[in-house]
Amino acid sequence: MCPEPVEGHPSDTSQPSAEDAALARIVRREAGLIVAQLQRRLGNFDIAEEAVQEAIIVALRTWRRDGVPANPGGWLSLAARRRAIDLLRKRAREVSLAEEWDADLT
After folding, report:
1. For 12-71, how does the pLDDT look when each residue is reduced to its tens digit (9 = 90+)?
2. pTM for the whole thing?
3. What domain range is 65 assigned to?
4. Is the backbone of residue 37 left (phi > 0), alpha (psi -120 to 50) or beta?
5. Spatial contact of 91 and 54, defined as CB atoms under 8 Å apart
6. Strands (E), the chain
7. Backbone region of residue 8 per phi and psi (left: phi > 0; alpha: psi in -120 to 50; beta: other values)
8. Dihedral of CA 50/2/62/37: which sign?
9. What's the number of domains the chain is made of?
10. Is residue 4 part of a domain?
11. Distance between CA 86 and CA 22 in Å, rounded?
12. What are phi and psi for residue 4, nearest 5 degrees?
């Protein structure tokens, strides 16, 4: 994984930072497991995968700023779970709004 530079982060292109290296290790080791766990709970692979991808982006920004947490796998799992909930809520609102618009047209 080659994370993209974050604005304001001193970036040495030859070596990833300790935070980037830790995130790359965690992603390789745990991302598939987190996606599978969310997919089992949600029954929706697309939302599970999107939630994990967005959690990785948040982790990259947060860990560069604050350092790697004590339990990085748990941190990433919790962030993905929270993002999945946000995505489900957003999609529910979109469906509700689409139904309202459809009812207005008929």
Report:
1. 557 888 888 888 999 999 999 999 999 999 999 999 999 999 999 999 999 999 999 999
2. 0.74
3. 18-105
4. alpha
5. no
6. none
7. left
8. positive
9. 1
10. no
11. 26
12. -80, 150
